[in-house]
Every structure is written in C-alpha cells, then in structure tokens.
C-alpha cells in the first residue's frame, strides 16, 4: 500500500514535469525510446500513455485502499465482539459480593457502550494511524529524495506546531473524556430506574421527577458530547491550515532558490500532491490521537473489571464432589463488607442426605445469608462448609451447584417461552419436553400452561414474567428447580406468593419428594415445615434452638409466635 502511494505521487510529479518540461523526453534515453516507438514526430501519444498509466495506478491504489479499509473495519468489529464477550465472562466469573456492590445499568453500559467506545475511539485509530503513518513515511521518503533541505524545514515546522497544539488541548481532552463517561453512566442509570420502577412511578405520580432527572443527565451528556465532537475536528482544521502554510512556504522557497519557472511548478506540484495524499492521513492521525485521549477514561474504567477473581486458584481447575452422606457447617462466620456485625455467627449443624431441614426466623435473622453460603454465592470469613467431608471451594463449587435445585423468593424469568424458562440456561436442542412437563406437573402448573396459556409451553411470559401473576411465576420457578432432577432442593420462601389452596398442593408435592432428595426450606408459614426432620431457629445470625416441629412448639417462644400467627 505504501509503495502504491509513493508510485502514485511520483507518477503525478513526473507527469507534470513532462508536460511543463517536454525537453526531459529528449534528454532521457528510456523516455525518448518509448516516445519514438509510439510516435517519433509527436509527443502527445506518449503523454496520453503516461496519463493512462497514472490513471491505472490511481485506480489500483484506491482499490487497495478499499480492501485495506475493509480489513481494518473487520478487525475492529471482531475485536469489539471479543471485548464484549470477554467482559461478560469476567463479570459472570466475579464473586456475587462484587456484583451486588455494582449498578446493573452501569455494567450494561460498559458491555454495550464502553466496549464500542474503546474499539471505535482507541483500537480503530491505532490501526488506522499505523497504516496511515507507514504510507506518510513512504511519501516523506520521496520528498527527501527530491529535496532534503526543503523537506526538513517543512517537517520541522509542522512538528513544532503540532506539539504545541496537542499540548494546549491535552488537559481539556482528558477532562471531557472523564466527564462524558460519568454523564453516560448517569444516563443509563436513569433509564434503568424508569423502566424498572415504572409501576411505582405511575402509582406515586413521580413521572415529572424522573423526567427531570433524566433530562438533566441527558443534557449534561449532550454538552460534553458536543464538546467532544468539536474537539475531535480541531486537528483537521489545524492541519489544513498548516498544510496550506507549508505549501506557500514551498513556493516561496522555490522562487528564492530557483530561477526555472517550470522547476518551481513541478516542485510545488509535487508538494501539493504529497500534501493532498498526506493530509487525510495526517488528519486521521491527529483525530485518532484526540480520540484516544478522549476514550482513555473508558479504558481505565474497564481495566479492573477485566481482571478475573480467582481467589488464588486456577479458575479452570475443576474438581468433582460427591454427596452420599451429609452437608456440614462447622463454626461458620460471615460478615459483609462495610457491615459492623456478622450476618452469620458461629453456626454449626449437619444435614444428612435425603433428609428435610427447615430454617425459621424473623426478617434479618440470617436465613437467606445461610442459603447463599450453601449455594457458594458467598464464602465464610471463618469456619468450614463441607460436603461429605470435602470443603466447599472455588474449584468444586460448579460440581456442587450442578446437584442443587434452587427456588428463591423473587423468581427471575426470561422474556422467553415457558419452556425455556423451565429449562433455564439449557440449549433449546437439549431440552426434553417430557422432563419439562413432569417438572411442571410436580409444581402444579402443567394444567394452567396447557389450558390457560394461548400457546401452551411456547407462550412468551414477558420481561421478568410481567404477564404472569406472582403465584404463576413462583410455580414456574419451582418447576425450573425440579427440571434438573437435583439431589438437593433449596426452597427460599418458595410458597410465599401462593394462595392457600395452591400452597397446599405445592406442599403436598414437596412432601412427596421427602426421602428422594435433600430438602432445605426457609419459610414463614409453618405449614410448609411441619413434616421436616429438623428445624433450626435463627436469631441475629445464630442458631438458638433446633428440634422437630412438635418439640419446638412446646418449648420455644419464637417458634410459638410463628405457630400462633
């Protein structure tokens, strides 16, 4: 590509010289022989031939430029795709504790918007600047070949002016880039708040407040975006001014040092053509340098996010874990960051395989934190969680989770079919209709899906299951947990959104699972824990009492209050 640039510029230069100084044909043996071959009495055919060659060289050069542009764009788009995928992978591999300290709208912005900012405003300019710099250096080499002194003078002047220009803009570029990133983050958060809480916004008549909040963030973003766009064009304007000044300097220099008007025209033409070829390249380099400076805050914000948390272990090292005997908590403590007290304090117990165990306590007693420890969402600060004597850790947590069916208080549903929500995270080609229907029957929702939903198991449930009632969402969540045929079924307030009749049906289904799998239940309604093999009462993160249902009703005041309610 660089060779074609040089040939193109050189061809134009020699064509102009031949037109303005036809005597060159007479003094150059090769050119004279070609001219005689074409027409010994007329130079016109020779000049036409040279013009056609110049046209062909220009066409080939532009064709190659198009292919180069395609290769650059393809490279940048592929890198952006890889960058986004890598970022999602990094986020999903980070600890849940890290995730709950982030804003989901901000993470969405980073994956969708910031990765493109980096690809478009850092990666592409680097690729483009590299290609344009090589081509420009080739043209500069040609200029050195023609006139060393003049080329040195022009380049030195342009370099000094460019350095002064960028030194003047540097601080402002960094400030605008940082401010734009913050404004963009605020804008995404406002949008997420509006769509996430639209029902409450309408109920409380808060539309105006959120409209103003978004308008302010959007206006701030617009202001910095405008300044960014203006700053990105300044290098082009400055370079164009410098190029015109350089061309005038070349002409003045030629007038002073040369008495040959034809020589002045050819030299001026050479620098004009070189400037014409180099100006877009220099513009791209200048704009690219500006763009990189503006986008660096986006890159810096993602640098730490891309570091995988490994906990000192190899995240790709996977270990199997068996579950034939029992789950054991041994003096487990859990404390969240920025919390003065422990969420779980010195908890010890064991759960035999295929037994049913319940945890009961008031709100904030630590029930959900205990379940999160069992799921491997959090790891204890001190103490051990063991499965058949093997400590639960990062290298075997995936194997452990593959044995678990989990029904949380708030069921997350995909904006997808009922079928895909039950088979959550399973490839559509790998789903088994019979297994899906069996799970739905156990969750007492199969009849509703078949008879009440317009397309049965292929019905779209809407974002977060917005088209379903709370009880319907919860039963789909239960079916999802059972679809995986788990060894351990964890029910975290799994029947809290159900009516009494449906709860009774679900409770009966759960009772039928006893001795077939290990059941771990958190509940406020004691009807769902009546038949458990053991019940543990939690207060302020501690187990204060344990026993069977009848034993606790007789002796424990907290349990009696639950029973009476």
Features:
4-stranded antiparallel sheet, alpha/beta, 19 helices, Rossmann fold, ABC transporter transmembrane region fold, 6-stranded mixed sheet, 64% helix, 565 residues
Question: Regarding CATH, which class of the largest domain?
Answer: Mainly Alpha
Write down the Rg: 37 Å
The tally of helices reads 19
Distance between the termini: 82 Å
Structure characterization notes:
It contains 19 helices and ten strands. With 565 residues, it is of the alpha/beta class. It folds into two domains: 2-303, ABC transporter type 1, transmembrane domain (ABC transporter transmembrane region fold), CATH 1.20.1560; 326-564, P-loop containing nucleotide triphosphate hydrolases (Rossmann fold, 3-Layer(aba) Sandwich), CATH 3.40.50. The strands form two sheets. The chain has a six-stranded mixed beta sheet with strand order 6-7-8-3-9-10, with helices on both faces. The protein has a four-stranded antiparallel beta sheet with strand order 2-1-4-5, with helices on one face. The chain is elongated, with a radius of gyration of 37 Å. The N and C termini lie far apart (82 Å).
């Amino acid at each position: 590509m660089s060779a074609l640039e040089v040939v193109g510029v050189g061809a134009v230069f020699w064509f102009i010289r031949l037109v303005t100084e036809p005597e060159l044909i007479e003094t150059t043996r090769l050119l004279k022989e070609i001219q005689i071959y074409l027409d010994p009495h007329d130079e016109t055919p020779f000049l036409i031939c040279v013009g056609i060659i110049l046209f062909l060289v220009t066409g080939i050069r532009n064709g190659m430029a198009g292919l180069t542009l395609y290769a650059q764009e393809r490279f940048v788009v592929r890198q952006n795709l890889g960058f986004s995928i890598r970022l999602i992978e990094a986020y999903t591999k980070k600890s849940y504790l890290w995730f709950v300290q982030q804003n989901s709208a901000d993470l969405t912005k980073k994956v969708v918007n910031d990765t493109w900012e980096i690809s478009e405003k850092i990666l592409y300019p680097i690729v483009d600047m590299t290609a344009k710099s090589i081509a420009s250096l080739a043209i500069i080499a040609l200029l050195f070949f023609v006139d060393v002194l003049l080329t040195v003078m022009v380049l030195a002047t342009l370099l000094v002016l460019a350095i002064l220009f960028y030194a003047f803009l540097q601080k402002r570029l960094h400030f605008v880039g940082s401010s734009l990133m913050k404004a963009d983050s605020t804008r995404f958060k406002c949008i997420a708040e509006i769509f996430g809480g639209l029902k409450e916004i309408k109920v409380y008549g808060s539309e105006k407040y959120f409209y103003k909040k978004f308008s302010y963030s959007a206006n701030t973003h617009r202001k910095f975006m405008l300044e960014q766009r203006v700053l990105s064009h300044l290098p082009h304007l400055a370079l164009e001014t410098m190029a015109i000044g350089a061309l005038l300097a070349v002409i003045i220099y030629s007038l002073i040092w040369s008495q040959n008007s034809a020589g002045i025209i050819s030299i001026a033409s050479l620098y004009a053509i070189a400037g014409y070829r180099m100006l877009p390249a220099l513009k791209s380099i200048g704009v690219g340098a500006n763009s990189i400076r503006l986008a660096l805050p986006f890159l810096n914000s993602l640098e730490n996010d891309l570091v995988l948390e490994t906990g000192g272990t190899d995240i790709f090292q996977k270990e199997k874990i068996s579950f034939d005997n029992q789950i054991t908590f041994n003096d487990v403590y859990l404390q969240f960051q920025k919390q003065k007290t422990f969420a779980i304090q010195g908890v010890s117990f064991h759960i035999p395989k295929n037994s049913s165990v319940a945890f009961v306590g008031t709100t904030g007693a630590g029930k959900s934190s205990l379940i999160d420890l069992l799921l491997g969402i959090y790891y204890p600060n001190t103490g051990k969680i063991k499965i058949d004597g093997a400590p639960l850790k990062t290298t075997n947590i995936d194997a452990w989770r593959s044995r678990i069916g989990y029904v949380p208080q708030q069921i997350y549903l995909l904006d997808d079919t009922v079928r895909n929500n039950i088979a959550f995270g399973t490839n559509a080609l790998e789903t088994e209709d019979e297994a899906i229907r069996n799970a739905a029957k156990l969750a007492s929702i199969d009849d509703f899906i078949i008879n009440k939903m317009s397309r049965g198991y292929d019905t779209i449930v809407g974002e977060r299951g917005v088209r379903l009632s709370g009880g319907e969402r919860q039963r789909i969540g239960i079916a999802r947990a059972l679809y995986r045929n788990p060894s351990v079924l964890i029910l975290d307030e799994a029947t809290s959104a159900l009516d009494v009749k449906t709860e009774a049906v679900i409770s009966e289904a759960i009772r039928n699972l006893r001795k077939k799998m290990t059941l771990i239940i958190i509940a406020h309604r004691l009807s769902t824990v009546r038949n458990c093999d053991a019940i543990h009462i939690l207060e302020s993160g501690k187990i204060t009492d344990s026993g069977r249902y009848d034993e606790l009703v007789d002796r424990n005041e907290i349990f009696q209050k639950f029973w009476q309610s």
